[in-house]
Amino acid sequence: MTRKLLLALPLLVFVLFVGAALWRLADPPSSTVASKLVGKPVPPFALKPALPTKPGFGAADLAGGQPRLVNLFASWCVPCIAEAPVLAELKARGVAIDGIAIRDTAPDITRFLSEQGDGYARIGADPNGQAQIALGASGVPESFIVDGRGIIRYHHIGAVMPQDVPEVMAEWEKVR
Amino acid sequence: MVLACALLTAGPLAADSNQPPSPYAYKQLEDPRQEARAKALMGELRCLVCQGQSIADSDAELAGDMRSLVRERIKAGESPDQIRAWLIERYGSWVSYAPVFGPETLFLYAAPLLLLLVGGLLAARRLKRSR
């Protein structure tokens, strides 16, 4: 009996393996990489103003007592166009938004904001993506909610769409 | 023919900026010893956009920025392990192709030894019986 069981063992292992493979192929895990910095202080960075009309900002400015939503965007980023009206709505609901312009130029940003709307209080320029990497982000757009003490509380990957507004607002209320 | 021409001239979907790459994205370090260390590390770091490629292989802008970051930090005297740890702090151990030894990877490292042990036992039993 035990010998039969032993002989069946390789088959059993194989069936388990096929089962696991089928399960993961049918329901692949998410391939987005969430920043591991949620719950940790904003890493040190300082960004020059991306536009002559708005100040830039750095990590120190994010620990000013009030929470901020930090939005990584770019004029060359297509989903950012879809996100712009949602950011305007968040701003109307009292969310303070700072932008980080990834690999962008002042004329392009100006054109983008005049066409899509401008909800940013400050915009820092990140010409080489170094702040993007420091924050643990891998694309545009991505958004972080930073509390008044400069601790990252929430990370949203991809465009904030209308259906994401309740979640983002709930996270925002939590840190106010 | 028309289709071929269209395919040749079609631009990729606008997923990249039109900005020049980071300073050391496509430029080697002046010191060959430093470049060798940077190169070795870049081969072991995962590109986060084109997952499955290393940043040394990838042409994505983020990969270029990461190569520049690696080279600039090596140039500034940081060790490859320090840079790897800094990136793992941000993106998790997933960013590195060299898995660190820990509770999550215990089975990975122990499996060859376990299999060798089981195989050895089976072989020993078989040899004993045949004698």
TrEMBL record, chain A:
Residues 36-176 form the Thioredoxin domain. It is found in: Cell envelope. It comes from the Bacteria. InterPro entries: Periplasmic_diS_OxRdtase_DsbE (IPR004799), Redoxin (IPR013740), Thioredoxin-like_sf (IPR036249), Thioredoxin_domain (IPR013766), Thioredoxin_ResA/DsbE_sf (IPR050553). The keyword Disulfide bond applies. The keyword Disulfide bond applies. SUPFAM superfamilies: Thioredoxin-like. Keywords: Cytochrome c-type biogenesis, Disulfide bond, Redox-active center. Belongs to the thioredoxin family. DsbE subfamily. This is DsbE family thiol:disulfide interchange protein.
TrEMBL record, chain B:
Keywords: Cytochrome c-type biogenesis, Heme, Iron, Membrane, Metal-binding, Signal, Transmembrane, Transmembrane helix. It comes from the Bacteria. Belongs to the CcmH/CycL/Ccl2/NrfF family. The keyword tRNA-binding does not apply. It comes from Sphingomonas arvum. The keyword Nucleotide-binding does not apply. This is Cytochrome c-type biogenesis protein. CDD domains: CcmH_N. Coiled coil: none annotated. Possible subunit of a heme lyase. The chain crosses the membrane at residues 106-124. It holds the Pfam family CcmH. Residues 25-131 form the CcmH/CycL/Ccl2/NrfF N-terminal domain.
